[in-house]
Amino acid sequence: MSRMLVAGLPRQRRLRDGLLEALPADPVEGEVRHFPDGESYVRVDTDCAGRDVVVAATLARPDPLLLPLVYLARGLRDRGARRVLLAAPYLAYLRQDTRFRPGEVVTSQVFAGLLSDAFDGLATIDPHLHRYAALSDVYDVPGRVAHAAPALARWIAGHVTRPLIVGPDSESEQWVSDVARRAGAPYAVLSKTRRGDRDVSIEVPGLERYRTHTPVLVDDIVSTARTMAVAVAGLRDAGCPAPVCVGVHAVFAGDAYETLRRAGPAAIVTGDTIEHPSNAIPLIGGLAEAVRDLLAGPPPVTEGAGGAA
Predict the structure, then answer these.
(1) Range of the domain at 100
(2) Statement to judge: residues 23 and 141 lie in one domain
(3) pLDDT digit string, tens, across residues 92-118
(4) What angle do CA 126, 227, 128 make, to 5 degrees?
(5) What CATH number corresponds to the domain at position 254?
(6) Are 113 and 306 in contact (CB under 8 A)?
């Protein structure tokens, strides 16, 4: 069987090259750019006849990426691709998973529908599923999820002396307890009250018995960084050492990174799902394993993404 191919988007070459090395695979040559009026131009030069193609695209700030991504998937099919899969280490548009007020659009479902129409399968890393139990609750194509907990635990065990793993809220307990178990460390969970995107308060439980430990704040997505910044301040006010902040997805919207730095953590470390100076924990190898698992399944019976003609 022919080796698979990997295509990518502009300014995401590191992700594409990481998957090329980990799978291994051959690159798709072509061009994705914008005309002066902002419309997209996409060209696929590589003959993809009968080959599986993985499109590597992390979807932080997804709106300007979506149309080029859909056009690229169509171009790969026009060049004969057998299957077109999306490898998106960060998967956007999972926040709006229900209708809180009349007239709101459940954007997670619309976004999932667009990607399900364009691709035959999806691999990602720790999607922020809240009311959805699994990707299959919202995506209509096969999906695989790579988990960051093992890599986070290895980094913590290798870089932090006497760590105390700290979760920002009760929803994080199951995930944080897993990281703690893998790192051989105790854990604690804070109590969070959110009144808005940037209005968060944190209550710190009694941590007197962990005075000699280094707190390690762990969260999946660091977006506004408000939760982490308030948690850092709360831990320091409680007499704890400056905590290490560890996140899977370094979204860091606006001035979020500087906001977190000003809070005074000992370090800020993230996975490499979104390129950022704080990246220190490699996760793309796990994404490649999820892609391999996805490719082990049967190809679509009919042409088109998700079995559509």
Answers:
(1) 5-147+285-307
(2) yes
(3) 999 888 898 999 999 999 999 999 999
(4) 20
(5) 3.40.50.2020
(6) no
